C-alpha cells in the first residue's frame, strides 16, 4: 500500500475507529498544564513601525533574543531574532502592558494536554485531562462532551463543573509568516519560515500543582487508559520543585503500567527556559517512558547537549540521532520527531500501528495550520486534498532504502508552504497520534 493509499484508508476508517473505542470506554489521559493563550494578529507593518520608532538605526542582523523582556526594545529585538531565523520558542516578560496594545487579539487555549484534548474532541474522540489553570475562561474554551477531567471526589466531570482553585496564567502568541519582509531604513530581511514566539508570564505553571485525584483515577482505571501523556515541565525553574514533580510522575507511571502493562507512556518534549531543567527532565523521564516525542529543533538541541552532532536536513542523520538518544537513556520503545514536512518514528515495535498514529497526527496538525481551529472531520477531508510534501516523500524513500528501514517509519505531511497558523500544531499532532493506541 502506498502512503497516499494509507492516508485515504485511515481517513475513511477514522470515525469508525473512534466510535468503536468510545463504546469500549477507552480514553487517552493528557497531562499536565493548561493556560489562557492570547492569540495576536501579528502584522509585519506593525513590527516595521516599531523598529522605525524605537530602534531606527539598528542593524537587523545584530538583534538577539533576550531571556527576559523588560522593555519594548527587548520585545522588538526578540521578535526580529525569531523571525529572522524562522524559529519558534518561548521568552518570559515582566509586564504584558509592554505589548498588550500593539496587536488585535483573541483568546485561545494553551498547554500541550489541553490543545491535544481539543484536537481529539473536534473529531469526537474523548480524553481525560489534567488542569493547572482552571480559570473560568480556560474551562469555557475546553467545554465539550468529549473532554473530561477528574473532580476532587475522584469522578469524571466536564470542565463546566470545575471550581477554580489555581491562579490564571496568560501566554501571548506571536505568529509570523514565511515571506513577510522586515524593513529598517535600507535593510530588509525576508522571514524564511512560518513559526511562533510564545511570550509568557508564568504563574501557576511555574509549579505545576498536581491533582492527586487525577493520578488516582488514572491508576485505578488504568485498563481503560490507552495512553498516558506526560508534558509541560518546561516552565518550572526551581530544581527542588521539579524533582518533586518528577518523582511523583515516576511513581504514577509505574503504578499505571503495573495495572495496564499494555498502556503507553508518552512524553512530549518542549522548549525549556533552562538547559539545567531540560537536562534533569530528560535524564529522569526518558528511561521511564515508552515513547518520547519532539520537533526537529528540540532534537538538535537535545543531541547538542550530549555532544552528538546532527544535520536536521538529513533524514538519516536524524534517525541516527534518535537511536543515539534511545540507547543513551534506554527509552523503552522509541522516539517520534514531527516537522512541517514529515513525522518519523524510530525504535522498537510499540505494540500499535505507529505509522497510522503519525498519519492521524499529521492530519490534525495540518488542519490546525489551515484553519486555526482544531480540525473537524469535514475540515480534515479538505486537508486530504493537499499534496504530500515532496521533501517528506524523499525522506521516506531514503529511510526505506536504508539499514534502518525495519525500525523506522517516515510519513510525509500534507504540505502547506505558508500556514496561516503556527500555534498548537505540535500539540494537535500529539492528540492525533493517541488514536493509534486506543
UniProtKB/TrEMBL annotation:
Protein name stated in the entry: Archaeal ADP-dependent phosphofructokinase/glucokinase
PROSITE patterns listed in its UniProt record: ADPK (PS51255)
GO BP term, pick one: glycolytic process
Upper taxonomic lineage: Bacteria, Bacillati, Bacillota, Bacilli, Bacillales
Organism: Thermobacillus composti (strain DSM 18247 / JCM 13945 / KWC4)
The entry's keywords: Cytoplasm, Glycolysis, Kinase, Magnesium, Metal-binding, Transferase
Annotated SUPFAM superfamilies: Ribokinase-like
Gene Ontology terms for molecular function: kinase activity; metal ion binding; phosphotransferase activity, alcohol group as acceptor
Superkingdom field: Bacteria
Amino acid at each position: 500500500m502506498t502512503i497516499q493509499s494509507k492516508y485515504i484508508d485511515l481517513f475513511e476508517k477514522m470515525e469508525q475507529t473512534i466510535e468503536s473505542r468510545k463504546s469500549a470506554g477507552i480514553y487517552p489521559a493528557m497531562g499536565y498544564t493548561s493556560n489562557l493563550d492570547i492569540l495576536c494578529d501579528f502584522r509585519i507593518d506593525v513590527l516595521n513601525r516599531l523598529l522605525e520608532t524605537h530602534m531606527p538605526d539598528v542593524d537587523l542582523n545584530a538583534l538577539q533574543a533576550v531571556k527576559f523582556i523588560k522593555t519594548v526594545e527587548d520585545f522588538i529585538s526578540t521578535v526580529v531574532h525569531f523571525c529572522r531565523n524562522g524559529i519558534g520558542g518561548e521568552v518570559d516578560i515582566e509586564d504584558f502592558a509592554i505589548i498588550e496594545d500593539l496587536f488585535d487579539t483573541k483568546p485561545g487555549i494553551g498547554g500541550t494536554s489541553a490543545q491535544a484534548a481539543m484536537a481529539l474532541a473536534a473529531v469526537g474522540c474523548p480524553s481525560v485531562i489534567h488542569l493547572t489553570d482552571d480559570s473560568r475562561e480556560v474551562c469555557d474554551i475546553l467545554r465539550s462532551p468529549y473532554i473530561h477531567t477528574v473532580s476532587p471526589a475522584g469522578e469524571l466531570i466536564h470542565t463546566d463543573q470545575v471550581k477554580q482553585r489555581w491562579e490564571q496564567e496568560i501566554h501571548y502568541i506571536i505568529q509570523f509568516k514565511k515571506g513577510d519582509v522586515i524593513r529598517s531604513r535600507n535593510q530588509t530581511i525576508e522571514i524564511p519560515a512560518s513559526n511562533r514566539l510564545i511570550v509568557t508570564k508564568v504563574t501557576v505553571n511555574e509549579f505545576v500543582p498536581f491533582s492527586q485525584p487525577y493520578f488516582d483515577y488514572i491508576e485505578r482505571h488504568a485498563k481503560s487508559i490507552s495512553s498516558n501523556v506526560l508534558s509541560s515541565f518546561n516552565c518550572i525553574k526551581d530544581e527542588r520543585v521539579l524533582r518533586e514533580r518528577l518523582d511523583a510522575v515516576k511513581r504514577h507511571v509505574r503504578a499505571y503500567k503495573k495495572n495496564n502493562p499494555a498502556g503507553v507512556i508518552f512524553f512530549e518534549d518542549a522548549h525549556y527556559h533552562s538547559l539545567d531543567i531540560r537536562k534533569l527532565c530528560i535524564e529522569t523521564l526518558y528511561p521511564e517512558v515508552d515513547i518520547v516525542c519532539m520537533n526537529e529543533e528540540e532534537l538538535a538541541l537535545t543531541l547538542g547537549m550530549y555532544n552528538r552532532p546532527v544535520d536536521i536536513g538529513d533524514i538519516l542523520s536524524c534517525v541516527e540521532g534518535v537511536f543515539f538518544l534511545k540507547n543513551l537513556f534506554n527509552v523503552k520503545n522509541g522516539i517520534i520527531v514531527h516537522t512541517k514536512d514529515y513525522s518519523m518514528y524510530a525504535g522498537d515495535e510499540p505494540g500499535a500501528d505507529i505509522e497510522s498514529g503519525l498519519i492521524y497526527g499529521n492530519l490534525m496538525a495540518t488542519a490546525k495550520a489551515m484553519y486555526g481551529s482544531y480540525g473537524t472531520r469535514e475540515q480534515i477531508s479538505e486537508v486530504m486534498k493537499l499534496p504530500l510534501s515532496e521533501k517528506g516523500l524523499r525522506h521516506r524513500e531514503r529511510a526505506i532504502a536504508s539499514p534502518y528501514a525495519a525500525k523506522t517509519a517516515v510519513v510525509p505531511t500534507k504540505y502547506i508552504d505558508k500556514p496561516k497558523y503556527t500555534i498548537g500544531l505540535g500539540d494537535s499532532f500529539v492528540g492525533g497520534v493517541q488514536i493509534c493506541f486506543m
